[in-house]
Structures are given as C-alpha cells and as structure tokens.
Amino acid sequence: MSASITDTLALHKSMMGESAVNDLQKTISTSTGLVNYDLQAPEKNLYAFLAPIRSRLKRVPGRGGIATNWRAVTGFTGSGVKSMPWVPEGQRSARMSYTTQNKSANYVTLGEEDSITEEAISAAEGFTDAQAGLAFRLMQGTLTKEEYALIAGNASLALGTVGTVTTSASGTGGTLPGAPTTYDVACVALTMEGYLAASLSGGVQQVVAITGADGKTYNLNGGSSMKSAVATQAITLGQHLFASVAPVLGAVAYAWYIGAAGAAKLEAITTINSLDWSTALAGTGQALTAVTADCSKNANYAFDGLLTTAFNSGGLAYTKVMATGVSGTGTPLTAGGRRNITEIDVMLKSMWDNSRLSPTVIFVNSQEMQNITNKVMNSNTSPIFAANQSDPYAVTANGFVTGYFNPFTAGQQGVTIPIVLHPYIPAGTILALCENLPAQFQNSEVPNVAEIHVRKDYRQTFWPVVTRSRDVGVYVEETLAVYAPFGLGVISNIANG
Hints:
The protein is α+β, with helices and mostly antiparallel strands. The protein has two domains: 277 residues, Major capsid protein gp5 (Major capsid protein gp5 fold, 2-Layer Sandwich), CATH 3.30.2400.10; 125 residues, no CATH class. It contains nine helices and 23 strands. It has a six-stranded mixed β-sheet. Strand 7 and strand 8 form a beta hairpin. The radius of gyration is 31 Å and the shape is globular. The N and C termini lie far apart (83 Å).
C-alpha cells in the first residue's frame, strides 16, 4: 500500500477514534444490501396454454373474397319406392331427385396486440430477449382466442327472450329471510361466450365497448339473452326458493336475478336451467334493469363455432338437452349398468342411424370427465387399484375413463373414441366431433367434416414507430367451414352428479 494511502487511513482512524471504527465494522451485514442479486434468467412463464381443437382441425388456404362458399348435395331420392327397386323387362326406371344447398362462411379477423418500450428492451439485455418473449406471448394469446372462436363463435344464433320462470318454495333449513315475504325472480340465458365472460361480481355482459390500440372503439355483444319476465314467489323463513325455465337453444348457462320487488340482482349462474336457492342474498350483483336486449350473437365480426353450428343445424347435428328434472338438481348422465353412459349410447346410435358415421373424439369439461368416470368405474364393476410391477406391495389408486367404445360403425367391430379433457368447454356440456368422413361417403369431396379456411395466415405486424414504444400485433383472417354438421353431437344441460 502506498505511503499516501496509509497516511490517509491513519488520519481517518484518528479522527473517528478506535471505538467508532470497531462499531462500524460490526454493523456490516446482509441487511445493508451490499450483496449480489441472484436472478435466474430468463423469465418463467407460469400459465397454461391449451388449444386442442385448433390443433386437430385442418387448416387450408382460402382464395380471397369475403367468404368461402360451397354447394352441398345433402341427399338424393330414388324414383318410385326405394324398397322396391324392380324394373319390368325392356322398360326404364324413373329419374332420381336431389337435395342441394348453397353454403358459405364469412372470413373474420382475430388478433392480439402488445407494446414494449425501448427502455424495457435495453434493460432486459443479459436477462432475456424481451421482444422475442412479447412475440411468443402474442402468438399464444391469438391462438387462445382462436380456440374459443372455433368452439363458441356465434354469428347467427340469437337466444332471444327467456321464457316464463316457474318458481316454488318448500323445505326447511335455509337462511333466506322471510322478509320481504315475496321475491322477484328473473333469468338470462348465456351462450358459451357469455358464460365465460360473466361473473357474479362483474355481471353478465351486454354490449362490450372495446378500445383498440389505435384509439378507435368498437362494440361486441356479450353472449347474453334478453331477460325473462319477472316471476314472484312468497317465501317463509327457512324455505328454499326453486326456479326453472324452459331450456334455451344455444344456451350453456343461466344467470339468475333475485331480490325484493323491483330490486332483483344477479345472485347465481348455473350450467343447468334451474336453481335451488336457500341462503341470504348478497344483494351486490348486477341489477336486472341492466339487461335491456338480446346481445347473444355477433353477426358482423364472428363466425359460427362448432357448438353454434350444432345447435343451429336444423336437426342435422345430434343435439340433446337434458330434462329439467328437479329444480336446482337437474338431470345427470345415466349409468347404463354395463360400464356405459346411456345418453352417450343414444347419441352414438343416432349418429349412425341418421348419418352412418361415428365421432372420432369427444370433448368434455372436468366435471363431466369425473361424472363419466364415477358412473363407469366403481368398486363393484371395475378395479380401482393397479399393481406397481416394480414393487408388488405398492398400489396406485384411482383411474379415469380415457375412451368410449362405439359399436355402431360400418365394416368393423366398433371403435374406441378418445375422451379429451377440454379447458374451456363449460360444465354440463359434451361436444362430440367426427373429424373425417368415413369411407362410406364415397366421392364426397369432403375429407374433413370441418376445416379452418385461412384467407391470410398468422402475421406479426410492427406498427410504425411514432413514440419510444414499439407496438406489435398478431392477426389472422379465417373462418370455420363445417361441411357436414351431422358429424357433430352435443349433449347439454347436464347436471352434476
């Protein structure tokens, strides 16, 4: 150490005193913050990303225009009586007739936007590529929106106005006050879009105003029907309030408004068409007066997804709405007694009898996955423990149904249809899809029951830089063309149980 530095330190110590120097040394610890920061690079993206239907449907290029169009021959009728094919010697049969339809599906745009500042890009150097991460998450966001659209997009099916609410009161043990003695009850039906957008705290969505990154605004309908007329029900302290409505075509859930006369508010959202209410009202939900119109479809911006196509097919798709049953309880799936589900059997048989095909996949919510498993597997009919081959004294508990055997198929001894757990399909709804027309549809020119027609595929747009923030968008222009709606099957209004 140089003499000058040594002299300086000695002078500093003499000014502070030896005791002060010792105290200073003793107070240095990790709490002073003179430590390294152990930051693991890059960032951890801790969110689930699933798009199973989008990954299964074939994507094909479009050819411009505002829609993809096709002409379908949906059937033919032979001459005379089809069960009597006989033609006399030397004569000719009469001519066949055909049923044809013009079909189209409008192209729409889906997309997502984000931005990143120049400082954020610079500050992330050495930790992560911030721009690449932004682009990756933008793509995931767009694909997630696309998955919702392919299932639940609704351009054509209006829910209308919910019918009459039927109410009753009975039972004991509830905490619903007897004052007021009469309650108003009303109902709003929800599409899948509306159900996923609704909450008890935020209410059901009517017209949703969106402000884009360009500052312009547009409105989307929120997937809700027009409210029902108000029904009234007298309540005695301790009774349960029961309510139900006729099922609404296209609805997967129902919002229930309850309150004193003229003051009903949103209290419950169910995935069946009835309600059993027995507790005190929160009184903090959306007011019934906020629901003023049928806002169930987006004709100008959306295409019809698989659920909407099935509900709106005019009977071509198989659709089953479970019976109302006991209000608040509903009708669950039925165990058939031979490790089968009666409602699924009926659907499979109907799709064969009417259309000569079988689904290739069945999508379910976790509730229905659990209910199917509980009805098919139990201690009396199925083993619930599997031996661990590496340790004969260890067992693995539980199990679940991964597929469903369908005996109704052509030219083979049945097929096993995979049951796929889907993250977005609501509880109470099962969606079956035949992805490819089978061999008996000769010369159909339709290898796929449904296709994603793409006018302009995913593209990343870097908007002109006008500030020190870089704006980025990911967009796709596409539509869903469902050529054979009879390849769809939907069971809805399923109670939990």
